Amino acid sequence: MAEELLKITNLNKSFGMTHANNNICLTLEKGEIRCLAGENGSGKSTLTSIISGMQPFDDGSMVLNGKEYKPADPLEANARKVAMVVQELGVITALTGSMNIYLGQTDQFRRNGMVSTRAMGKAAEAIFDKWHIPKVPLGIPCAHLTMEQRKMVELARALDADPDLLILDEITQSLSHDTRKVIYELKDRFKQEGRSMIIISHDLEETVEISDSITILRDGEVVETVRSDGFTVDDLKQKMVGRKMEGDYYRTDTAPSYEESVLLDVKDLSLADGQLKNISLQLHKGEILGVCGLSDAGIHPLGSAIWGISDSKRSGLVKDGVTGKELKHPKDMIACGGSYLSKNRDEEGLMMEAEIRNNMYLPSMQELTGKMKFTSPAAVDRLAQKAYDDFDVKATSIHQPIGRLSGGNKQKINLGRWLVKDLNYIILDCPTRGVDVGVKAYIYSVLRKKKEEGVGILLITDELTEAIGMADRILVLKNGELAAEIERGEAFTESNIIEVMV
Amino acid sequence: MTKQQKSQVIFLAVFAAVLVICHLASKGIVLSGSNIVNVMLHAVFPMFAAWGMMFIFTGGLMDLSVGANLLLAGNVGALLANMGLGYAGLIIGAVVTAVLATQFTAHCAITFDIPAWVAGLGGALILEAILAQWANVMAASSNTLPALKNYRGLGKTPGAFILMAVGFVVAFLIFNKTSLGINLQAVGANPTVSKTMGINVRKTIILSTIIGGVFIGISGVNDISLAGKLSAITGLNSLGTISKALSATLLANSLINIFTKPVGIVISSVIVALLFNVLTIFGVPSGTWQNVCLGLLIILCGVLSHLNEKGVVK
Amino acid sequence: MKKQIVSAAIAAVMTVAIAGSSVMAADHKVGYNYLGAGAYSLSMLANNEKKVSDVLGQESLAVDDQFSVEQMVSDIENMINSGCDGVAAWLISDALCQQVSILCQNNGTYFALADKVATDEGVISLLKGNEYFAGACGPANEIYGSQLAEYALEQGWKTCIITSSAVGDATDTPRLEAFKSVFEAGGGEIVDELHADQQQDALPQIQDSLTAHGEVDVIYGTGSDYGVYACTALEDYPSFGTKVVTSGLDEAALELLNDENSPMAMVTGDCWMSGFFAAVFLQNALEGNTLKDADGKPIWIDDVQPFEVTPEKYPLYKKYFLDEFAYTDDEIKAMIGASYDEIVTIVHDYNLDNRLMAKYEAGIISADEMKEAGYEVG
Q1: CA nearest neighbour of A329 among A344, A340, A342
Q2: Is C322 within 8 Å of chain B by CB?
Q3: What ranges make up the beta strands (E) of A79-164?
């Protein structure tokens, strides 16, 4: 029998009236890769933050390597060889990579009262060498690094603790397909060396594929811990939501279905910084057009470039298929029934300090403004309440600040506020990023409904299964260029797409 | 040579070229020894005030009482110096006053969890009122706030330059090369991350504001040493006292991609002092067009330093 | 809980402060506003205005405009609302004078203009037609400038730098313009005109200008603070023989005048007495004795003359103008109820020599003191 690394017994954690973790019991063996699964708000992140010392638990016990474990802070957890990379924490952009890695521990490089940045840089480099993770420039402020490079800095910081237990909370979601591989290789190495991992991922296929076992949580309680062998994604979905998922998750048809008429016509779209080169595409009525590619392929800049908010100068032509009007700015797109959801929801999509109501009515401001340029508060309330009800947002009321909602509810609002409008086309950049399976299923059902209503959907996604599951056609981008166009049918497989991507 | 080093070389080369052109155009005045000494002397005060603000503002405390603080600190220092305590009284009086004043606003902001600018403006009004009341009491007996007649060496050559050199070394090392400086930058950027990483956020802010207070106190010492007296002002007009220091801070922020902040502040303070000096030499009217030129320079530096900056790929 | 305790403490302190500021009841309550606290000249002006109420045992209320022009009218309104029977107003523009005139008329409150007087004929006529207008008194700012320019020319000085406050300042601008016009008309050259938004900025400005233009004959400070900064700036130019002249009898400037190593050559001013005279006008009006000229118009004096304080006379000025007051309490009391002509004479006779002589004649100043100051007495 394998040796026990961590044993959690009857652990409880409450936030006011909310019981985030209720009598959690969990045992992790050395060399075991454990995934935690559950809907948003099921208590996964609370549990991992307790294990990593980010917050204390109310009662219960934890035993690590046979000794009582009750970390007061992450540094104490690190000292017991437990480290964590958190989905939303990020790095300090003003500081260099190496400073970020040793943040709070810079005293170890102190010579005569001064911190030796040279020694710190060397030590940071050594972590990357030791764990074979892709190198990033460590001597420059993290503001100049890409999101993926920043994640690598965070990972290096966690690995510096030489952890016996590494917790990864939804980090693969923000990584490209090729960088995810690095995480998988790291996982294999951990296993070989008898170290353990706890991984949280909303990608259920990934969850089942990479883990040895899965602990399923629901409403703050452990439902079950199962071995991953022979366990399917459908089983997992059912256990997570506690009911059989009604209807289909993805589309079940195997052929494309959309009308001939073009809603959005893009010709030779390029960006001056080279992120996009001569991209042409046509989005048809009732079509879901998927866009896939590796991290630097340009799929995310494509959405913002079509919408007209790129940092870099845009060239080429974006035309409304119905009116023939050239679309240069978001205002033009909105006037033609267009909409756009950024991948970076919290920074570019929502006003985090504002009420749900004010976030809801923003895209419909023009329609709600009267001839005298006044907006009726009652009309705004009605619209916000309708979207709130239609999209089943879970909050106290439309007056609750949006920043306090879960990721899934935020995304429902982010999407819902556009969908209450009479749209012709929607540009969606990773619409299911960071949401649980229940919300995901809901979003897919809404997209299918919109497709049936004739709305054109440009679905930019990092998840191939999502593109394959939902799209009529998939455009594959590589190095900013259009590498392939694959139509729904027999050729619509992950391997075919990956072959083009890499 | 790194990209940053290249930028530094280019910047300094352009700066030197502009100076040479100005020198030639002014028929040999701008780069004359006496004028350089003049400019550097005028740069010391905004430099210290800007370093002080760097330590206070970086942690997220927008304490706008700095101007009132340094006016009060300079006067308290002068009072003690005139009472026979000499340089020791001048420096200790100013520094202790400034540190206490910064701690007042910092503790108000942190303890009562109110926005730092609110605490800072409140602090500014209180400090201004204390100095104004002091001046009023003096005026009632036909006296004035203390004028510093002796002990003015820290506002003149070489005292001011020694002060500047020591100030730079201390500011640079603390900000860039100590755990406190690194933690301070982290706290200012993201207190939540900092706390998670085991940084004691409150302690970091308090320690930094104490260091900021020391620099503010020294700026008061330098200012009163240079000018001989510092008048009281009310109605938040003390903000105007730090207008050049704020300009230098803004300029240093514009140059952040080229120079680290403590170095940027040195260069920016010299540029601000030099700008007014050169414009005066060329006969540009003060109070109007000179301020326009400073505003344009700050905007220009901001634009140039961010010219090739790319957005983060998310 | 901590926040509640602090809030309660702050409220308590404010209540005590407000309660403590109320003064005993008296016949009349007079209010006066002043631009801001802290500056020597403004404090002297405010103290002089208060002097009249103090001597007469009247209640007074001082309001600080916090260096905000926008606040002036509302401050006066607040004074009226707080029960002031009369207001000595320090107003920076004609438009404000007009507003305050209407305000006081509507509220039946007497008012006088102190130190700053209106210049627009329409506004002056409006003020003079207001039954609640007690009169106006201001210094002869042009004379301040022209007098020093004439002195500079007499010394044979030909080149000058002017250092002044922000562009457009109501007090400094007429001084500066008058100095400039007389100095240039007499063959002098203004090589630089400096304006400092902040007083401390004057010092680097002067030094930059001296570097740019080299040695000049004289620097004119439109206010004594600027004159003092000019002397400080010249410390770094020991080889220069530049002299400094300044308007405003700031003690620091006078002490420099007494220092034989200092470049300060002449200091003039009126010891900020316009405020005092305006307060006298107001008290007279409150006593039902509005001072009016032969045409029935309220008293209007805008030419209180500056005088020179020489190093010899400085001890007497300090003792009998600053430590004491230019007028004795009895003299002040006698001014209430005086006629228009008497008051006009008092104001026009006001200068250092006359006041010292009056005090000598009243036995306040000894003959020895007068002789030491260069006066030929008994």
Answers
A1: A340
A2: yes
A3: 82-85, 110-111, 114-115
Domain count, chain C: 2
Q: Higher model confidence: residue A475 or residue A435?
A: A475
CB B95 within 8 A of CB B217: yes
Q: Are C161 and C254 in a shared domain?
A: yes
User: What distance in Å separates the CA atoms of residue A187 and residue A172, rounded to the nearest whole number?
Assistant: 12
Partner-chain contact A114 B311, CB within 8 Å = no
Cβ contact, residue pair B312, A143, below 8 Å:
yes
The domain ranges of chain A are: 4-241, 262-501
- C110 with C180, same domain: the answer is no
Pick the CATH number of A4-241 from 3.40.50.300, 3.40.50.920, 3.40.50.150, 3.10.110.10: 3.40.50.300
Total-model pTM: 0.75
Same domain assignment for residues C237 and C301: no
Predicted confidence (pLDDT) per residue in B154-183, tens digit: 998 899 999 999 999 999 999 988 999 999
Q: Which CATH class is domain A262-501?
A: alpha beta
Nearest-CB residue to C207 (from B26, B38, B229): B38
Residues C223 and C328 in one domain: no
Span B101-126, pLDDT tens digits: 999 999 998 888 888 889 999 999 99
Does A145 have pLDDT greater than 50? yes
User: Tens digit of pLDDT for each residue in A38-60?
Assistant: 876 678 888 999 999 988 999 99
pLDDT of residue B305: 60
Tell me if A4-241 shares its fold with A262-501. yes
pLDDT at B306: 61
Mean pLDDT of C5-21: 60
CA distance B147 to chain C (A): 8
Domain range for C45 is 24-131+272-368
pLDDT at B269 exceeding the cut of 70 = yes
List the structure tokens of A235: 């089983």
Rounded Cα gap, residues B146 and B35, in angstroms: 30
Chain C window 14-73: which residues touch B at a Cβ cutoff of 8 Å?
Answer: 36-40, 43-44, 47, 64-68, 71
pLDDT of residue C26: 46
Interface touch B193/A343, C-beta < 8 Å: no
d(CA A371, CA A90): 46
* Chain B hits for C32, Cβ within 8 Å: none
Tell me which residue range forms the domain holding B171: 34-236
Mean pLDDT across A438-443: 81
| Stretch B241-257: mean pLDDT | 86
Question: Residue A447 and residue A470: Cα distance in Å, rounded?
Answer: 9
Tokens of A271: 């960006």
Query: Which chain C residue shows the shortest CA-CA distance from B231?
Result: C39
> Is there a contact between B4 and A113 if contact means CB atoms under 8 Å apart?
no
Taking the CA of residue C325 and the nearest CA in chain B, the distance in Å comes to 10
Nearest alpha-carbon partner for C360 in C370, C352, C350: C370
Asked whether the beta carbons of residue B288 and residue C200 sit closer than 8 angstroms, the reply is: no
CATH code, C201: 3.40.50.2300
Q: Which of A94, A145, A148 sits opposite B185 (nearest CB)?
A: A94
Q: Picking from A223-232, B137-146, C172-181, which range would have the lowest pLDDT averaged per residue? A: B137-146
Q: Chain A residues contacting B, CB < 8 Å? A: 54, 73-75, 86, 89-95, 99, 103-107, 110, 113-115, 117, 139-140, 143, 145-148, 273, 295-296, 300, 311, 343-344
Instruction: Spell out the residues 6+ positions from residue C148 whose beta carbon is closer than 8 angstroms to its own.
Output: C179, C220, C245, C246, C247, C266, C268
Residue B246 resides in a domain: no
Please compute, for residue C341, the number of CA atoms within 13 A of its CA located in the half-sphere on the CB side: 2
Q: How many domains does chain B divide into?
A: 1
Q: Does B253 touch chain A (CB under 8 A)?
A: no
| Residue B310 sits at the chain A interface (C-beta within 8 Å) | yes
B312–A145 CB contact, under 8 Å: yes
Would you say residue B244 lies in a domain?
no
Q: Which is it for strands C189-195 and A456-460: parallel, antiparallel or unpaired? A: unpaired
